[in-house]
Amino acid sequence: MKHLSINQISAITASFEDANFPVENLLDDKPKRIWKAGGGISGASLSVEISGASSDLAIFGTNAVQATFSVYDPNEIEWGDATDEFGYSADSWANQDFAAVSGTVMRRENTGALWIDFNATLPRPAVADIHLLADGGTELYAGVVVAGLASTYGGANVRYGVGESRIDHSIVAELANGARYYKKRDISRVFSATALMLTTQYHLLVDTFDTYGAIPAAWRLIDGSNTEWLIYGYPAISASHDYLDRSIVSIQITEVV
Amino acid sequence: MILCEFTPAGGGMIRCAMDDFSDIHLWKSYITSIASIKIAMPQRWGGYAAPTFSDISFSPDMFSDTGNWPPPESATVRMLWIAGIDETDGTEIFSGTAVVGDIGLTEIKYNLKRPDMAATVAAATAYADTLVAVMTTLCGASLLNLTIDTTRARIPSPAVSYTTTDEILAIDFASDLCACFAHGFYIEAGTLYLIDMYDITTMQEAVSEWDITSASYRYDSRYSTAKCGDYTVSSATVLNGDELTIATAYHGTQANIEDALDIILAIANRPTIELNAMITDDPLTIGQCYVFTDESAILPLQSICLASDVVYNFDSETSQAVGAGSIA
Which of B271, B273, B263 has its CA nearest to residue B228? Predict the structure, then answer.
């Protein structure tokens, strides 16, 4: 389990932009307030300036189906070759089909999510260049970009048996003949999970919660079978301190729309 | 869905909606609630169906995000209703001014004001023509400045013979004049639609239980006589009801006045039908004559409702039409 509660993005630019859907929309916390590439363009690049330490970058609400990325130090003091310094192979990330990257990137109908793990902690400001590609003939868009230093709690995963439910914000009424009137609106996923973690790690988790409360954050839930969920939502946390140095932590994450 | 163009004085237009919605533009979900919008004739037998807008509330970040904090005192507002996902295929439901009311921590409430219709009819102005002709005159460029649609006006149009005593707002004069002859009107996109409120048999629109969430039927009031000045008419069927008083007769001849009173009395004694429906791409509309067969009654109940009062609740996307009609 990891999450990005502190968004370190200081600026973002796009190679293409519809003036009515500017790239700044990626920096709010509303996945449906989207950036569009404009002009029916299905492939575009984002240049994300990360102002502090970072280890992960996540994109939500995108229709991109492929992505490539590179990270570099904008000051070019120490990291002339980012690939070497950061210890990941650019080739292994090139042209990854989201659906084919098991356990790393997941997509959900109409709410695509992408999570990029830098495989290293970048200790200082960096720039991530991400090239996104939507299906041919489909104009590329994305809702939220978050980057920063992920909180990982010693790599603790949540227990097998993650609960998932949905909140349907649609309008429902009963017609005079008993038939159902239904107007589709957004549907939020709600995940509930438990994790056994060191009480000291729990304190880190709850410190984050106390600091950021219900501000949406990027969450990556990983259970005991390595099934993963990518969620942009806000948490509710409780715990029972059943053991000497370990606590059973219950986490509920409600997806924002 | 409601789309709202909010333009502060001297500022740029802010596009907002109840939900984040993107088409040509991004309409951000800054609207937290819209009070019900009511379009009602002053009498069930007619008059001007003026829309009544109370207020609209926005989330505070609409103003902080756009550099408009504190919220501006007033703004130009245009609201559209779209049934689908095409922002260019909208129906304008409001165009006017929003004036800030409550500035709360979680929402900012604005009161909605329609532009005044300030044109007046001078004192001692004489009208001696049909109602349609007089209304056409009142819709002229120097007065209401509207196009008039008389498709649903009564034929032949009742005669008007009246001279104004004092200067009066043209819209008020038109409203009272039409009500006297059992006509109602509403204004939409620069056109005044004149409707015969007595006619519930032509230009009907059938709705079914697939369109309606509920319906109810009642008799609001019973009048045995209608009176205007020295003239009184009696109902042939209601013998122990109240007396209905009409203030102004817009004709000097007894037969014309009594004809008008007979029609008003008949409408006043009609049952009231209330239809509730969701707001769809074919919403309940003022002045529309709905025919509905209610299969949920012990025996099928066919009702006709000529809507003189329509309320839209955009928070729940429900609507209600109320009007006089018939049940059988």
Answer: B263
- On the question of pLDDT at A72 being above 90, the answer is no
Q: Find the closest chain A residue to B83 by CA distance.
A: A183
SS (H, E, C) chain B: CEEEEEEECCCCCEEEECCCEECCCEEECCEEEECCEEEECCECCEEECEEECCEEEECCHHHHHCCCCCCCCEEEEEEEEECCCCCCCEEEEEEEEEEEEEECCCCEEEEEECCCCCCEECCCCEEEEEHHHHHHHHCCCCCCCCEEEEEECCCCCCEEEEECCCCEEHHHHHHHHHHHCCEEEEEECCEEEEEECCCCCCCEEEECCCCCCEEEEECCCCEEEEEECCEEEECCCCCCCEEEECCCCCCCCHHHHHHHHHHHHHHHCCCEEEEEEECCCCCCCCCCEEEEEECCCCCCEEEEEEEEEEEEECCCCEEEEEEEEEEC
Helices (H) and strands (E) in chain B, counts: 4, 28
Rounded average pLDDT over A13-21: 95
Question: Model confidence over B193-207: pLDDT tens digits?
Answer: 999 999 999 999 999
Q: What is the pTM of this model?
A: 0.79
% of chain B with per-residue pLDDT over 70: 100
Per-residue pLDDT reduced to its tens digit, B278-300: 988 888 999 999 999 998 888 99
B20 and A179 within 8 Å at the Cβ level: the answer is no
Tokens of B278: 């969701």
User: B211 at the A interface (CB within 8 A)?
Assistant: yes
Cα–Cα dist B58/B108, whole Å? 5
Contact between chains at A32 and B19 (C-beta distance less than 8 A):
yes
